[in-house]
Each structure stands twice: as structure tokens, then as C-alpha cells.
Write a structure and sequence with these properties.
Strand order of the largest sheet: 3-2-1-4-5-7-6
CATH superfamily: Vaccinia Virus protein VP39
CATH architecture: 3-Layer(aba) Sandwich
Largest sheet: 7 strands, mixed
CATH class: Alpha Beta
Number of domains: 1
Shape: globular
Helix content: 40-55%
CATH topology: Rossmann fold
Radius of gyration: 18 Å
């Protein structure tokens, strides 16, 4: 059976499922195992399976980030996403925070690899940003990391801290998985590229999908950002969701050129994954800027 046909089958079965499986928190809430951290880092590099997802989020964030902005990335991990956004926006300043020293060591290597000078890192738990000034950030972002939090109360605490450090007119972009109903659907997504990813990453991917919060839990937590905050998910099935706020602007030609170059560097299967994600989010009400 082709991948597209298998995807359609799982989406239909997911839609028909009536019972929501219980959340299973990550076995390790902080990824401090060296092998795990490295597997995640490799999956997010230019030839990795997460690269299409990162490009999608970079394009979305490019509508919110302006020259001179101070941008906070919550749970930045090895900084593959953060480095890409910082490359596209060299005139903005970025702070990546993560609780794992192993991840931040890899993050430093990522920034050095691209020769970036507009990124710095701090070791912090994202639900407690004590020491960070109120109303100091123009943009708060987080991509594919919130499922590592232990429970809904900590998710809510994280959103409160993000709102505290955000300027009153600041922008928010928080993206993550949403919990699917069926274990078979979770396994499909975790294993569809298993030939291109390590066994460690496949296992971590499945654990991440089991640990994801529900769309309703995100909607309840996002109220702290105010009534203008929006929630979007992939159409038909909320495999991935985005909580976002902020005035969107036209992406500069330079940023689009950078994103176009990143897209051209993806292999055909990755390009298809990017197009599929863009399509499903567009159907879910979140269009993506077009390349030049």
C-alpha cells in the first residue's frame, strides 16, 4: 500500500474513532541521554526527517518576526529550528532556553556550524523563567517541544510564563503535536520514515505522540495570551497544532529566498512532506507564504 493511501486510511479511521486514549508522559521529561539528544539533532538537520516541518514553521514565523525583535525560543533543543529562523532573520536577536545541558551543547555546535552571531542560550525550565524580565520579548516561539512537559498544569504554567515575558503587543507561535486517538495512527506517523531515521528516534517519536496534549487542552491553556490568540490544526485530524498571536506582515524577499534555498536543498521525499504539511494546515485555516 502506498504511503498516501495508508495516510488516508489512518485519517479516516482516526475520524471514526470515538475514544481518546489517555496521555502517556515521556519516559524521560528532559532529554539528557547523549544518544537520544544526538538522534534528535540528526533528525532535524537538513537531510533529516524533521527538516520539512522546520521549514514550515520558519515560514510561519517569518510573518511575525521583524528587524530588531528579541525572540525567545522555549525548549530549543539542539537548535535546528532556531538556527534556521535566525539564519533567515539575521537582523533579529534570539535566546534559546532548554533544561538539558546535553541539548544546549548540541545547540552551540549547531549555531557554530552556521556561523550565527545573533543567538545565545540559557539553561532554564520553560515553566519557570525566573530572572527573565517582564514584557521584554517581542516574540515567543516553541516548536515540537511542549509534549515533553509532565502534565497539563505545567503546560499552563509555561503559557503563563511566556505571557509574562512577552511585550503587550508581542507575537506568539507555539507549535506541537496533538494527541491522536489511535495507537495505530501514532505508529504510522512514527514509523513512516523508519528507513531514514535511527531506531532511537523512531522510539522517541512514538513516545512524543503518546505524550502529546489534546487540542482542547491547548485551547484551554492559550487563553492567557488574550482573545486575539488563534488555534489552528492540520485538517481532518489534529496531528499538529499551532497556537499563535500577533500582527502578520508580508515576508521579505530575502527571507523567502532563504527559505526557497532551504527547500531546494531537501530531497524529493522531504519536499513532498513539506507540501503535505502545508496543504493540511492550509485546509485547517493556516496558509503558508509562497516562495518567490
Amino acid at each position: 500500500m502506498s504511503t498516501q493511501l495508508s495516510l488516508f486510511k489512518h485519517l479516516v479511521l482516526e475520524l471514526l474513532a470515538s475514544r481518546q486514549d489517555a496521555r502517556v508522559p515521556e519516559p524521560e521529561l528532559i532529554m539528557d541521554d547523549t544518544d537520544q539528544a544526538e538522534a534528535f539533532m540528526l533528525a532535524g538537520r537538513e537531510d533529516g526527517v524533521i527538516a520539512p516541518t522546520y521549514l514550515f514553521h520558519t515560514l510561519q514565523l517569518s510573518q511575525l518576526i521583524k528587524p530588531g525583535d528579541d525572540v525567545l525560543d522555549l525548549a530549543c533543543g539542539p537548535a535546528n529550528q532556531l538556527a534556521q529562523v535566525a539564519r533567515v532573520h539575521p537582523d533579529a536577536n534570539f535566546v534559546g532556553v532548554d533544561a538539558s545541558p546535553e541539548m544546549l551543547e548540541l545547540a552551540g555546535e549547531t549555531v557554530q556550524r552556521f556561523g550565527l552571531e545573533n543567538v545565545r542560550f540559557e539553561t532554564r525550565y520553560i515553566q519557570n523563567l525566573e530572572g527573565m524580565t517582564d514584557n521584554s520579548m517581542d516574540v515567543v516561539m516553541s516548536t515540537m517541544s511542549l509534549h515533553h512537559l509532565p502534565d497539563v498544569s505545567v503546560l499552563q504554567a509555561t503559557f503563563r510564563e511566556a505571557a509574562r515575558v512577552l511585550k503587550p503587543d508581542g507575537a506568539v507561535y507555539l507549535a506541537d503535536f496533538s494527541r491522536l486517538k489511535r495507537e495505530q495512527t501514532r505508529r504510522f506517523f512514527a514509523e513512516q520514515h523508519k528507513e531514514q531515521q535511527s531506531e532511537i528516534f523512531t522510539a522517541d517519536y512514538l513516545n512524543s505522540l503518546r505524550a502529546a496534549f489534546t487540542s482542547q487542552e491547548f485551547k484551554q491553556a492559550m487563553g492567557i495570551f488574550g482573545p486575539s490568540t488563534r488555534f489552528n490544526s492540520t485538517a481532518l485530524v489534529p496531528f499538529m497544532v499551532v497556537v499563535h498571536r500577533g500582527e502578520r506582515h508580508t515576508v521579505t524577499n530575502k527571507a523567502l529566498e532563504e527559505c526557497q534555498a532551504i527547500f531546494q536543498g531537501l530531497h524529493p521525499a522531504q519536499q513532498q512532506d513539506f507540501s503535505d504539511l502545508k496543504h493540511f494546515f492550509s485546509l485547517g485555516g493556516l496558509p503558508t507564504p509562497q516562495f518567490l
